[in-house]
Amino acid sequence: MTEATLKADPKGVLTGVHFIDGDHAACEGALAAGCRFVAGYPITPSTEIVERFAARIPKVGGVFIQMEDELAASIAIQGGVWAGHKVMNVTSGPGLSLMMEHLGYAAMTETPCVWVDVQRGGPSTGLPTLPAQADMMQVKWGSHGDYEIIALSPNSPQECFDLMIKAFNLSEEYRCPVFLMMDEVVGHMTERVNIPPADQIEITDRKWTKKKPGEYKAYATTSDDLVPEMVKAGDGYRIHVTGLTHDERGYPAMDVPNQAKLIPRLLNKIRNNTEQLLDVRMDGCDDADVIVMSFGITSRVATAAIEAARAKGLKVGNLRLIICWPFPVKLIQQLAEKVKAFVVPELNMGQMVLEVRRAVEGKVKVISIPHPGGTVHEPETILEQIIEAAR
Amino acid sequence: MSESLDLRLALAETELENPVLPYLRQDRIPHIWCPGCGIGSVVTSFAEAVRRSKLDRDKIAVVSGIGCTGRVAGYVDFDSMHTTHGRAIPVATGLHLANPDLKVVVFSGDGDLTGIGGNHFIHAARRNMNLTVICVNNFTYGMTGGQVTPTTPSGANASTTPYGNYEYPFSLPFLADAAGATYIARWTSLHSRNVTQSIEEALKHKGFSFVEVISPCTTLYLRRNRLGDGVDTLQYYQDNSILKHGADTRETAIDFQGKMLVGKFVERQKPTYLDAVNATCAKLIGDDYQLYGKTPPEKEAEKKAAAKGKKKAAK
Questions:
Q1: What's the distance, CA B53 to chain centroid?
Q2: A144 at the B interface (CB within 8 A)?
Q3: In terms of CATH architecture, what is A5-204?
Q4: Which of A9, A57, A241, A246 to mutate to test the interface with B (most CBs of B within 10 A)?
Q5: CB distance A103 to A130 below 8 Å
Q6: B24 interaction partners in chain A (CB closer than 8 Å)
Q7: CB atoms B99 and A233 under 8 Å
Q8: Closest CA in chain A for residue B281
Q9: Average pLDDT, chain B
Q10: Where are the domains positioned within chain A?
Q11: Contacts of A81 in chain B (CB under 8 A)
Q12: What phi-psi label fits residue B139: left (phi over 0), alpha (psi between -120 and 50 degrees) or beta?
């Protein structure tokens, strides 16, 4: 990849040790990553992120606006990107549902932006103040048409900060929407958060073109690099950005050849890099009989269950997804050669477990531990299933 | 050889260029608009207004949503965004706030702007966001085949009101005025010079400026309502437009084939959204506040001095 790596702008970095919740830490991560424009719309349990941004940004140098609804918020940020800013979109389930069309717009126009979903129980208004992990499939499949996104899942306030920066960097590298899939518990849990000095935070710059107006084609790519270079409005390039199927110039080109060229590229710029986008934490997976795969807040409960199972002498691996999308199919397939079973607890009625089943193709047992949301699993529930799986 | 042909040949030799052409993406012409449609006239007026305004065209961005008027962004040679249905104004808001040096212009039809996008329209006006919004109002959803819109006059026929429209329409100047817009004008596509002048004024206006242009949809609205062709409609505009600058916007409703008030209805000064952000934060936060999108007066003076020095050096 050719993106320039910079150091964080110290103006946005609140270096030091803090005792803050995940929402506040996520906001600090965004500021450290260089986010200077947010168009928000309040929704529980994500509101603290935009509230903190509204309070902090006037002193950092940037602007916040509370829009009239989520439709406006999720597209106003994209206007902000095309004028040169790094931006973030903050919401929870019902808001996310309203934003789906603009997820597609960001994917189609290759607008780098970070989407934060502090998940709560659904469907519909559901459980506004209580956790879930039930939007995992929505972010992947919720907008119409074929598209790819990247999604990260933090399990602590510290990770809300760290992974937010990573999310921003990935959005610039791949020019796609990147999700930070928080949940109500992680968002409202207060822990120690260490914010390093600005010069220790690496920032991926936008993939600005060096070409001159006239030479530059907005969506031209090469076979080695499927991510086009970018410009911003006001620099004389007279770019055209459209959600219609477009050609290399960015002009509408609604025909079969252009669709056949554009859509595979949008997918392959992510899919071809699935290996580079592998980010998991593995513990004791090498000689495990059973692997528990989890992500986000559930990984903390799973860890307690795994430790209890190990105390009983069982060989249990702990696999935690940091990047959930793209899903690490290959890794799961490799592990499936060695283990008896996978156990997949998640705060939904069985979403990411479908990906595990798809990967293992029936070779080993895959046990889903669903939960309708509202609280986290009991470690005992997971332990029971581990014992069952190890039989 | 006839005299008129001589004249045409002579004109061809002088290589006069259409003054609008440099403002169009000529590699995208021909456009999709129907013969007799008014959108092209409004685009011509816009191009002429930009030329006259002497604004730096590379600091102008054009945003549109979906629909026939939504295609304007694709034809004009500016930084342009063709967005989702109804959301041109939020995109424009994002562009403007992220780079306040840009003059952002929204081109939108009546269905896009006041139906699906109505909420954004009133809120941008309420905030006095520094945007120019041009609405080509042809009383119909043209792209999808002539459905009823929020501005279709009561009684008019549309494909989704095949027995006549039984709803009450919006009067857009009244709506914009009530919501807080600080510049409001209405013309028809017949009034091309007035449209040009109003767009030029709107471009220079600080705050939310709104120009409505009543325009014929020959293929759908006119045909469905048996109103003849584009020329018949221009005649209707000629006979039924009543010029009234400063008119009370409560009187600007349009009945089916009725009289229409046209003119500049509203022009007032009020702090823009960003002015208000800066004023409030500067007052309450004090020295820690980073003035946004505006150079502090002392830096402005420095910049001017530097520019003067450069000019002198160039001489």
A1: 15
A2: no
A3: 3-Layer(aba) Sandwich (3.40)
A4: A241
A5: no
A6: none
A7: yes
A8: A58
A9: 93
A10: 5-204, 282-390
A11: 94, 98
A12: left
**Nearest 10 degrees: CA dihedral of B73, B82, B274, B47?**
0
Nearest CA in chain B to A237: B79
Q: Which residue of A has its CA nearest to B98?
A: A80
Beta bridge partners of A368: A344
- ipTM (interface pTM): 0.96
| Superfamily per CATH, domain B14-270 | Thiamin diphosphate (ThDP)-binding fold, Pyr/PP domains (3.40.50.970)
pLDDT at B211: 98
Q: To which residue do tokens 């003059």 refer?
A: B103
Say which residues have a Cβ less than 8 Å from residue B111's Cβ, sequence separation at least 6.
B67, B140, B141, B147, B149, B150
CATH number of the domain at A282-390, please? 3.40.50.920
What residue in A sits closest to B100 (Cα-Cα)?
A83
Closest CA to A86 of A66, A109, A112: A112
Residue found under tokens 């795994």: A306
pLDDT of res. A5: 82
Q: Per-residue pLDDT tens for B148-168?
A: 999 999 999 999 999 999 999
Nearest-neighbour CA in chain B from A207: distance (Å): 18
Chain segment B276-295, per-residue pLDDT in tens: 999 999 999 998 898 898 76
Residues of chain A numbered 61-120 and touching chain B (CB < 8 Å): 61-63, 65, 67-69, 71-73, 75-85, 87, 101-102, 105
Nearest Cβ partner for A75 among B28, B90, B97: B90
Maximum C-alpha span of chain A: 69
Residues B102-114 have a mean pLDDT of 98
Contact A77 B63 (CB under 8 A): no
> With contacts defined as CB-CB under 8 Å, which chain A residues touch B179?
none
Residues in chain B: 315
Task: Please determine, for residue B315, whether its predicted confidence score (pLDDT) is greater than 60.
Answer: no
Give the C-alpha separation, B183 to B159, whole Å: 34
pLDDT at B308 over 90: no
pLDDT above 70: percentage of residues in chain A: 99
Question: Closest Cα of chain B to A137: distance in Å?
Answer: 23
d(CA A383, CA B212): 67
Under DSSP, is residue A72 helix (H, G, I), strand (E, B) or coil?
helix
Instruction: Over range B94-99, report the average pLDDT.
Output: 98
Domain spans in chain B, listed from the N-terminal domain onward: 14-270, 274-314
What is the mean pLDDT of the segment spanning B98-116?
98
